Amino acid sequence: MAKHGLGRGFESLIPTDLVDEEFDPTADVDAQTIVDIKITDIVRDEEQPRQNFDTEALEALADSIREHGILSPIVVVKEEDKYKIVAGERRWRAAKIAGLLKVPAIVRTLDVQNRLELSIIENAQREDLSAIELATAYAKLKSQFNLSEEEIAKRVGKKKTSVENTMRLLNLPDFAKKAMREHKLSEGVMRPLVAMDEKIIEKAIPLIVDEGWSVRQVQRFITSKKKNSSAKAMKASAYMKQEEKLGQKYASKVRIGVKSVTFSVKNEEELKKLLDALS
Pick from 122, 104, 106, 111: which is nearest to 49 by CA? Predict the structure, then answer.
């Protein structure tokens, strides 16, 4: 492996002011060396929060790498005879597309928690993670490493309320989470739907995707649905007994509206009986 001095771009790769040294076992380790590692000796971290990569963006980055090379090294950890990516999977993927045989990398010794934290920090700062991927990453820090929302917020450089709001997205049904990933729907536009009934969410998502709804439009939609639901509940409570009595009396299905009463029958014979009873 060829070695290099640390070039420009390391601060942008890992914003050191966001890495809490108290929890970084490599804080006192000299990381000022970059080595060239065979691209075939590098593997992705299956636990890394980002799972989706835009093909066109990767091709564009590959073109840039062909012309300028990799300006910021990736960060890896040694595991047996391979190097697992901590930060920089997108650059590694693009380098493979570009046909590179080796990539510049910083080899660090990190435990599982710090690898996850470092990966989240890099992607969050670059806004590479979708909102739902970020929420999943936060939840992993909470469930696997027993970190509180406040502790997570400190590590990723965000407010506690921001972490909490992002994690609430995990309460959305699976189809909504999938839509967020596939259509890159923002946290802001999806958050009002978190506590809604699935039927409302199913109706809202196509409108958000196809018409590019804003947060305010989503909120108006929810308000209108709540009003309709409230009106239906009031109507059901006020007329349910009357509908049941009329239905039994005239052997038909009865629905009472604001200004109408509807009788429904199955066939012509039942219709004749109903008309005779009403006449």
Answer: 122
Catalytic residue among 89, 117, 122, 149: 89
**Chain segment 94-141, per-residue pLDDT in tens:** 999 988 899 988 787 666 667 667 777 766 665 666 788 888 878 877
Task: Map tokens 């934290």 to a residue.
Answer: 117
**Would you call 89 a catalytic residue per the annotation?**
yes
| Unique residue bearing structure tokens 């000022």 | 32
pLDDT, one tens digit per residue, over 9-28 is 333 332 333 333 333 333 34
Q: How many CA atoms lie within 13 A of 115 on its CB side?
A: 24
Give the DSSP letter string of 81-103: TEEEEEE-HHHHHHHHHHT-SEE
Tell me the Ramachandran region of residue 80: left when phi exceeds 0, alpha when psi lies from -120 to 50, beta otherwise.
left
All domains of the chain in start order, with CATH:
3-129 (3.90.1530.30), 216-278 (no CATH)
Q: Amino acid identity, residue 43?
A: V
